[in-house]
């Protein structure tokens, strides 16, 4: 028999964070910096935090800084490469590194080696067109202070030094080119999330697992009524709070729809699953000490960019290659097969149908991925690792990604967006995050934006505290090389990234 009760008013939290992933963990720690007197409660539906998109096997862990991801540096019709998006993402990752450094210095996380390690980031292309693009990309990025030290080569012998595993057995006549940055990292966002929430719990934040937020209802006094269900016993509890953040990954869209805020109208979600080939062979790992991103096939979406990544997870090194996309209507790995159909509402039906009509290339790509044989997947791997043997690789299922579908204000048609979107209710009492990459890597910037949009009346008072934790707050590192040098030296030392 289940029961339902209400939390006494004196025990109601000031802030409710839905989801136990990197976004909620980041916001919980930012609130510890600027408003430690506020009471905060975190509700995670799974049996442990960081079980979905923040889990280390559920994401690439690249520490997205646009050092190697070619989809952040598009080329125009004249071949010139636009570095704008890459600069923005790199700036955002530098903000994350500064905040993590602050947490390490303040004793709010364990050793940085538990969640971040230095790994070179490389971009790799083949063919004359690829080499021309890579030269232009290098010229565009190397001129930016944030990308200082980015190296270029189209010499097969030099690339054999950089990427021995990828160059062995390759056709010597094949045109190849690459860039390399020694400033790259591998990040275990699952470990980082757990460290942050464990610390938050010691400072008074109530972190609950096996607790699913089923409903959000705005009350006449401006507070939110939050209904939480125990996923083990079925018991329900209701509480009231001044502010709700929905950081539930793929579960964010349906919950924001239940909240009934007009700002969510027109938004939909398109779920995509992914798989990676993984090798734990010490010989292969020893010969691939890098993260390498290539180019997506013609007509394929940005999510399909192939990459061969060195990973360090729970003290063990491995190499992952992928992604191989799949389709499931679930919005979370532990979600329901009815997640997608239930998310279709009168307010977003037009957007969803519009994307169904315009994204035929994506549909074709997903169907092709779904019907691929193991041999076909292995041939794709051999495009990166010519000597790869099937016996050295096993398949890992990654996390669900729900790509944002939104309404274009100019055309009123639905468009598919391969990024993240912060949704803020009109009075700032509720916010949620939709979308995927670069996601976790830019969590601190996303949550700083949330603080500015939801608590504008506090920002001036909070600014000195935020500048202490994040020295570049309010500045552009790419425009201030001296500050960039200072920040870079500090974070490398604090996060132990000097080798």
How much helical structure, as a percent, in the residues? Answer: 25-40%
Question: How many strand segments?
Answer: 22
CATH class: Alpha Beta
The CATH topology label is: FAD/NAD(P)-binding domain
Global shape: globular
Question: Can you give a write-up of this model?
Answer:
GO terms for molecular function: (S)-2-hydroxyglutarate dehydrogenase activity; L-malate dehydrogenase (quinone) activity. Pathway: Carbohydrate metabolism; tricarboxylic acid cycle; oxaloacetate from (S)-malate (quinone route): step 1/1. Its EC number is 1.1.5.4. It catalyses: (S)-malate + a quinone = a quinol + oxaloacetate. With 499 residues, the chain is of the alpha/beta class. The protein has one domain: FAD/NAD(P)-binding domain (3-Layer(bba) Sandwich), CATH 3.50.50.60. Helix content is 33%, strand content 24%. The chain has helices at residues 22-34, 84-105, 127-142, 156-162, 164-167, 189-202, 252-259, 282-286, 339-343, 349-358, 360-370, 374-384, 443-454, 459-469, 481-494; strands spanning 4-6, 15-18, 40-43, 116-118, 121-126, 151-153, 176-181, 185-187, 206-208, 211-218, 224-230, 236-241, 243-246, 268-279, 291-293, 307-313, 316-326, 394-397, 401-407, 414-417, 420-424, 430-435. It is globular and about 75 Å long. The mean pLDDT is 91.
């Amino acid at each position: 028999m289940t029961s339902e009760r209400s939390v006494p008013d004196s025990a109601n939290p000031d802030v409710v964070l839905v989801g136990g992933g990197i976004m909620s963990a980041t916001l919980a720690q930012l609130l510890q910096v600027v408003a430690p007197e506020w009471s905060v409660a975190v509700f995670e539906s799974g049996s442990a935090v960081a079980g979905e998109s923040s889990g280390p096997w559920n994401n690439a862990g690249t520490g997205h800084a646009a050092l190697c991801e070619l989809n952040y540096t598009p080329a125009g019709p004249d071949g010139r490469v636009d570095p704008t998006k890459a600069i923005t993402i790199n700036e955002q990752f530098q903000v994350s590194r500064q905040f993590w450094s602050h947490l390490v210095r303040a004793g709010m996380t364990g050793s940085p080696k538990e969640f971040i390690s230095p790994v070179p980031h490389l971009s790799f292309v083949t063919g004359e067109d690829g080499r021309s693009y890579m030269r232009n990309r290098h010229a565009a990025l190397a001129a930016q202070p944030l990308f200082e030290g980015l190296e270029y080569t189209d010499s097969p012998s030099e690339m054999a030094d950089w990427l021995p595993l990828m160059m062995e057995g390759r056709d010597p006549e094949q045109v190849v080119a690459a860039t390399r940055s020694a400033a790259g990292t591998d990040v275990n966002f699952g470990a980082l999330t757990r460290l942050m929430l464990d610390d938050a719990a010691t400072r008074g934040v109530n972190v609950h697992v096996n607790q699913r937020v089923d409903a959000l209802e705005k009350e006449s006094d401006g507070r939110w009524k939050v209904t939480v269900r125990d996923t083990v016993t079925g018991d329900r509890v209701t509480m009231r709070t001044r502010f709700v953040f929905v950081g539930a990954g793929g579960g964010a869209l349906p919950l924001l729809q239940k909240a009934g805020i007009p700002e969510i109208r027109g938004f939909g979600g398109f779920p995509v699953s992914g798989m990676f080939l993984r090798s734990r062979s010490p010989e292969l790992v020893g010969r691939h000490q890098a993260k390498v991103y290539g180019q997506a096939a013609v007509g394929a979406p940005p999510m399909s960019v192939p990459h061969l990544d060195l990973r360090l997870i729970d003290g063990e090194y491995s190499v992952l290659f992928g992604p191989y996309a799949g389709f499931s209507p679930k919005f979370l790995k532990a979600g329901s097969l009815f997640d997608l159909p239930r998310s279709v509402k009168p307010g977003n039906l037009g957007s969803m149908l519009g994307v169904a009509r315009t994204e035929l290339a994506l549909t074709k790509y997903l169907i092709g991925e779904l019907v691929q044989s193991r041999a076909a997947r292995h041939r794709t791997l051999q495009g990166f690792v010519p000597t790869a043997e099937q016996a050295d690789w096993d398949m890992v299922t990654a996390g669900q990604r729900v790509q944002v579908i939104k309404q274009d204000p100019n055309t009123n048609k639905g468009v598919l967006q391969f990024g993240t979107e912060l949704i803020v209710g009109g009075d700032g009492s509720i916010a949620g995050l939709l979308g995927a990459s670069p996601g976790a890597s830019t969590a601190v910037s996303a949550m700083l934006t949330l603080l500015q949009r939801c608590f504008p009346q506090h920002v001036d008072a909070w600014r000195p505290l935020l500048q202490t934790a994040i020295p570049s707050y309010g500045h552009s590192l790419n425009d201030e090389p001296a500050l960039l040098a200072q920040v870079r030296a500090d974070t490398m030392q604090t996060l132990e990234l000097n080798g």
